[in-house]
Amino acid sequence: MRIAITAKDKSLDAEVDPRFGRCQYFIIFDTETGAFEAVDNASVSLGGGAGVQSAQAIAEKGAEAVLTGNVGPNAFQVLSAAGISVYAGVSGKVSDAIAQFRSGKLKPFSFPSVGAHYGVGAYGSGVTKPSGKKRIAVASEDDQGLNSEVSQHFGRCPYYTMVEVENGEITLSYRVENPFWTRHGESGEAPTFIRDQGADVIISGGIGQRALRFFQQYGIQAVTGVSGQVKMVVEQYLRGETGKA
């Protein structure tokens, strides 16, 4: 089986690139033979359509699965149409991602992990955010978006509802599967996943002390001790009615 992993360099020791369409390289790995090749991503500097072009390139390489940090809706549609499984929320070294895939620890996503134009129009990790904009991640018990119930367990919630606000108003929301909710991830995996979504704030009923230290390190504001529907809690946060962790 051939799998494609987004990478920041050309070796198995490289870090997984959290971007799909604009990753630096694709590592094409054969799980039966252990052979691999590093492919330059020709779409890395495209002004638009990078996800679709990258998905088509992966399909032409005969990949049956892709491992990456995030995949937007356009790329996800092309990959799904080509019968390529998508494993998002992947981080760390390429070799570690391959090992997790081979051991069955990774879970395929059934929908995109981020909104359209992640890293371009919609900011992502490492991209300067426009003034007045903020991205809020809310631990959620279900996939109903703004109508979801806030989860009391940050690391074990099945979904995160990503809410974008501009000048105090909600402008966009979408759901992201939590790739770690059915397994015990390594320390810091879930906070790193939230960081890679480009979040400025994480809201949950409860967050452990170790995760809180990671969020502090990443400069992400943590809000705990809340309950109710996501939309209501986000609006409370925007009005300054919630407390910091």
What is the name of the CATH class of the largest domain?
Alpha Beta
Q: Count all strands and give the number.
A: 10
User: Order of strands across the biggest sheet?
Assistant: 3-2-1-4-5
Largest sheet: 5 strands, mixed
Helical stretch count?
Answer: 6
* Full CATH superfamily name of the largest domain: Dinitrogenase iron-molybdenum cofactor biosynthesis domain
Low-confidence runs of at least 5 consecutive residues: 119-130
Structure write-up:
This protein is an alpha/beta fold and 245 residues long. It folds into two domains: 2-102, Nucleotidyltransferase, domain 5 (2-Layer Sandwich), CATH 3.30.420.130; 133-238, 2-Layer Sandwich (Nucleotidyltransferase, domain 5), CATH 3.30.420. 23% of the residues lie in helices and 22% in strands. It contains six helices and ten strands, in the order E-E-E-H-E-H-E-H-E-E-E-H-E-H-E-H. It has helices at residues 50-60, 73-81, 94-102, 189-196, 209-218, 230-238, and strands at residues 2-7, 25-30, 36-40, 65-67, 85-87, 133-140, 159-166, 169-177, 201-203, 221-223. The strands form two sheets. Strands 3-2-1-4-5 form a five-stranded mixed β-sheet, with helices on both faces. Strand 2 and strand 3 (36-40) form a beta hairpin. Helix 1 runs parallel beside helix 2. It is globular, with a radius of gyration of 18 Å. The model is unreliable at 119-130 (pLDDT under 50).
Fold topology:
Layout: E1 2-7, E2 25-30, E3 36-40, H1 50-60, E4 65-67, H2 73-81, E5 85-87, H3 94-102, E6 133-140, E7 159-166, E8 169-177, H4 189-196, E9 201-203, H5 209-218, E10 221-223, H6 230-238
Helix pairs in contact: 1-2, 4-5
